[in-house]
Amino acid sequence: MSGMRADAATAAATAAADLAAQRAGVTLRELHGLDEMHEACRVLDRIWRPDPGNPLITPELLRVFAHSGSYVVGVDRDGRMVGFCLGFLASAGLHSHIAGVDDSVRGRNVGFAVKQHQRAWALARDITTVTWTFDPLISRNAYFNLAKLGAAPSEYLADFYGAMQDEVNAGTETDRLMVRWELTGAHAVGSAAGTPRVVTVDGAGAHAVVGLDAKPDGSPVVGRRDGDTVLVRIPAEAEELRRTDPPLAREWRYALREVLGGLMAEGHTVTGFTRDGWYVIDRHQENQA
């Protein structure tokens, strides 16, 4: 972008970020001191509950990231840190490695405020792409990332982290979907204005086929993958399924890896995620990410 356009984009992103934080009732700030890094690690521990001998990250490493210019940001509410996000510089631009908020502020759109702050921070540094990963089985995260933010999946990563020992991920293979968020693209701009990227099953077209669905007993069933558009369902509450029926959760993991992972490996494009739990894949678009 030209300098004038870049300045205007940054100003608009900053205004959108300020509004999102105000609506969520939080304040976001860059962290620098070692005491702040210890506090951030305590926030992460409350959210992920890792094995004490295997922390998600250390305060010393966070301070190195901050000192070297990475995105190290705390989220405060009523004088208490209730969320944290770490992003570091990468070949694509900025890679957002970890972000979370504790239970006290869930459902308040704090995550949206964090991503809008991250977008404004990146644009102010002439970074126009942010990447991150998420578990493709978690419906609420898929909707947030693909619909509410307008990020685009670029790669299916099977068992990316290997076995993890925190309470959120323990006992499950860590498949992840890598997404790219093009900060000056139409979907990100729309997101900042509060306009999600809406797709529906009904809008998929007459030539859509169902590649993965649920049987009446809740188990996955693999279907067709030869239509112009392929619809791929995931369970509404995969995290609950891990606790109540681990074998069934693993069935869904492997079925999603086969169908969604297989289609993406062939170069087909995930064009969105519906409110009721379907990935929409277009077999006639090459993945440009």
Can you put this structure into words, describing what you see?
The radius of gyration is 19 Å and the shape is globular. It is 36% helix and 28% strand. The protein starts with a helix and ends with a strand. The relative contact order is 0.12. By secondary structure, the protein is an alpha+beta fold. The protein has eight helices and twelve strands. α1 packs antiparallel against α4, α2 (34-48) packs across α3 (59-67) and α7 packs across α8 (246-265). β4 (93-101), α4 (110-124) and β5 (129-134) form a beta-alpha-beta unit. The longest helix has 22 residues, at 3-24. A seven-stranded mixed beta sheet has the order 1-2-3-4-5-7-6, sandwiched between helices. A five-stranded mixed beta sheet has the order 9-8-10-12-11.
Q: Which features characterize this protein?
A:
289 residues, alpha+beta, seven-stranded mixed beta sheet, five-stranded mixed beta sheet, 8 helices, 28% strand
Q: From N to C, what is the helix and strand string?
A: HEHHEEEHEHEEHEEEHHEE
Number of continuous helical runs: 8
Rounded Rg: 19 Å
Report low-confidence residues grouped into runs of 5 or more. none
Main β sheet profile: 7 strands, mixed
Mean pLDDT: 91
Helix content: 25-40%
